[in-house]
Amino acid sequence: MTGSEHSPIRCGIVPPYLLVRLARLDDPRFAAAAEAARQSLLRDAPLRTVREAPHPLPGPGLRAGAAPKRVPGTIDRSISDAAGLERLPGRLARAEGHPPVPDVAVQEAWDGLGRTHDLFWSRFDRDSVDDHGLPLDATVHYGRNYDNAFWDGERMVFGDGDGLVFNRFTASLTVIGHELTHGVTQFTANLAYQGQSGAINESLSDVFGSLVEQHARDQSTAEAGWLIGEGLFTDQVQGVALRSMKAPGTAYNDDVLGRDPQPDSMAGYVETEDDNGGVHLNSGILNRAFYLVATALGGNAWDAPGQIWYDTLTNGTLGGTATFAVFARATVRAAVKRYGIGSAEHLAVVSGWTTVGLGSGLAAGVPGPKRSERQRPE
To answer: For residue range 311-327, what is the model confidence (pLDDT) as tens digits?
Structure first.
């Protein structure tokens, strides 16, 4: 089964506009990287058009052949090796109970799945991405020089990069946390991957991808780097990561890739039909709001800020086509419900959204959604 036949869903970590720019390069030094980008775009293109709809929800259940009873919070991982082919899942390389293997990509994927599972279970009492112990499966070495990593609705898939611009995609823990959070969103708010709801989807993955890394490294809000995809670029690129949550628009500024185009407030909101309506672009506005909330509260970002965002994602108040305004108000309501009107958490959330230009109507406690904001059931 080929990758394109396996599933109609891909939420990739690398924005298509980056790959397009790289694919158009006419520089002999980067000829191999340009070809790798073109091939990566071709692999992703057949599935990009169907991402606008909410993801289908596979039913929760145990891995085939597993025991019918399990201890809640127990992780069940498998890492397969595609060996440069585009066939999923590939050859099983490691499963629970197996010893470590020499392949660094297998081990990075293994550890990353574990770190992500640990954050959601230990901090939010969530039992895997579906909250019912869904096995966490991943495939490494997908395709030849594939410049991306994605969640396809069932598993994580990692390319090795082209070696000139992109390193292997298992090297960044935020990438693994980001992509698995697409799975959490799939089983909760199920946000359509288009326009503002798609940007919310992307931002939620950045938020929890960053929290996975911070939690694994025991970093406070002040100590964290707030970078998504740090380490993905080779030393040929003038850039530190794919995105910066702290300062959107500053992650890279390179002669080959151009300058990071993410806006940091609604004043720079990008209207476009590309990138599924700017899902990787405008998510920077929401990312900065979360960073501001976390900074205002201090301590560990996975505590109150992460809890508020997790509550918002999972409490059933977001419809599949939620807008930025709906999401902002939902986070305020979540903060009020858990911490109270006038609490430091409530005020920090209002202040964060106000700074990025989404503060209209948030000064009050916002006890419930307005009729016009209520979403029809998906």
So the answer is: 999 999 999 999 999 99
Strand partners, 91: 81
Q: Which residue, among 246, 112, 273, has the nearest Cα to 262 in the 3D structure?
A: 246
Give me the residues of the chain with pLDDT under 50, please: 1-8, 47-56, 58, 60, 66-67, 365, 370-378
Residue 282 in contact with residue 196, Cβ under 8 Å? yes
Tokens representing residue 27 in the block? 């520089």
Length of the chain, in residues: 378
Q: How far apart are CA 220 and CA 218, in angstroms?
A: 7
Report the first-to-last Cα separation within the chain, whole angstroms: 30
How far is 80 from 136, CA to CA, in rounded Å? 11
Domains for the chain: give ranges and CATH numbers: 3-186 (3.10.170.10), 195-373 (1.10.390.10)
Bridge partners (DSSP) listed for residue 259? 253
DSSP single-letter state for residue 240: S
Quick: pLDDT tens for 73-108.
999 999 999 999 999 999 999 999 999 999 999 999
Q: Tally Cβ neighbours within 10 Å of residue 271.
A: 9
Is 267:279 a contact under the CB 8 Å cutoff?
no
**Which residues carry out catalysis?**
179, 280
DSSP secondary-structure letter at 166? B
Helices (H), 187-281: 195-217, 275-278
Please answer whether residues 155 and 88 qualify as being in contact, where contact means their C-beta atoms are separated by less than 8 angstroms.
Answer: yes
The span from the CA of 199 to the CA of 188, in Å, is 16
**Separation between Cα atoms, residue 125 and residue 117, nearest integer Å:** 10
Position 89, amino acid: P
User: Which residues, in sequence order, are bridge partners of residue 254?
Assistant: 258
